[in-house]
Amino acid sequence: MDTASTGAYDGVRTAPRALATEAVHAGRDDLARQGLHAPPIDLSTTYPSHDSRAEAARIDAFATAGADLAGPPVYARLGNPTVARFETALARLEGTETAVAFASGMAALSAVLLARASAGLRHAVAVRPLYGCSDHLLTAGLLGTEVTWTDPDGIAGALRPDTGLVMVESPANPTLAEVDLRAVARACGPVPLLADNTFATPVLQRPAGQGARLVLHSATKYLGGHGDVLAGVVACDEEFAGRLRQIRFATGGVLHPLAGYLLLRGLSTLPVRVRAASATAAELARRLAADPRVARVRYPRLGGAMVAFEVHGDPHEVISRVRLVTPAVSLGSVDTLIQHPASISHRIVDAGDRHDAGVTDRLLRLSVGLEDVDDLWADLDQALGAARARQGARALEESVR
User: Fold this and answer.
1) Which of 92, 221, 354, 388 is catalytic?
2) Which listed residue (131, 222, 261, 299) is catalytic?
3) Can 353 be counted among the known catalytic residues?
4) Which residues contact 152 (CB under 8 A, 6 or more apart)?
5) Of 165, 156, 159, which is closest to residue 195 (Cα–Cα)?
């Protein structure tokens, strides 16, 4: 039933709708006329066709510009109808022409860098902090790229003739630092701005409307929302999407159809989840800021479900003492997660660079879920108390020696 196109889903087009409505209906507008309610999952890896001449013409068109293949699907590495539904829905939420999904957020970023490098634009300008693996990918030059790190005010001066990309993350991982996306976009001039919107999601901000040409998501996080899918996506214009599709086809970083289905389902509750978790996060940030055991709290002006805080005691003791909160890497799930960035998500970044970007050794990152705020606070309170008591005991032991 659902094999009319493998590219950007082009079902019923409607007048502009509110974000909450788009989250529920985008990518699904054609289902009722097909007699369906839930989107189908197309697990085929290949599709039969008796018209090999037509297949050749469509593949030639794809090779030329990476355009969506009109007509029935050909092969799963070229595109999948279920994944296309998610791509269309995410593009509608971000306000871009289209989107291209990948097997992970890092696969998506890699495709962007390869697209620019293949055009002879191997230089990137970036603002720290970024997600640790994004930082590492740029710094290590694993894809033949070179990076200049700067602050937002230094972007224009860092541009070179071979600069192919400017990358920022706002709010940033893990410090939640924010940048003025409009000002950054102006500083970029003709160079594409890539904004990582993983933390904010389109519920809180839409970078494309502020001048970003590319919007990156680790869809593993809020877009999926339940800790059970690994994915990445770039929302962008059709011209750039064509190049990304070609790279995805050549490198094989495709998203599995089941993941596409789970992401589309996740989008339907995205506004509700983000707003509910954000309200709880704001209250936890307020309580943490008033707690003498906490040295500093960082919470974005934009809001959101992420809280970063530094403790006076040993952050590792806090991690070891939580019972309701889950001590684990990642974020954006329905349950609350806590982790120590300097040990896990940003361990791969040089220690000096980490500290310069505000990722201190006492910083903890909290991804707030949908639990009751008082239950979460009770767990954090006892963990902070146990860590403080442990620190006091150690200090006493040392004084006795």
Assistant:
1) 221
2) 131
3) no
4) 127, 168, 179, 180, 183, 184, 187
5) 165
Per-residue pLDDT reduced to its tens digit, 30-60: 999 999 999 999 999 999 999 999 889 888 8
- Side-chain-side CA neighbours of residue 8 (13 Å): 25
- 131: annotated active-site residue: yes
Q: 251-307, pLDDT tens digit by residue?
A: 999 999 999 999 999 999 999 999 999 999 999 999 999 999 999 999 999 999 999
Q: Which one from 10, 47, 75, 77 is the annotated catalytic residue?
A: 77
Give the pairing of strands 306-311 and 294-298. Answer: antiparallel
Sorting pLDDT into bands at 50, 70 and 90, what band is 16?
confident
Residue of 196, 206, 245, 261 marked catalytic = 196
Q: Is 196 among the residues known to form the active site?
A: yes
For residue 361, indicate whether it is catalytic. Answer: no
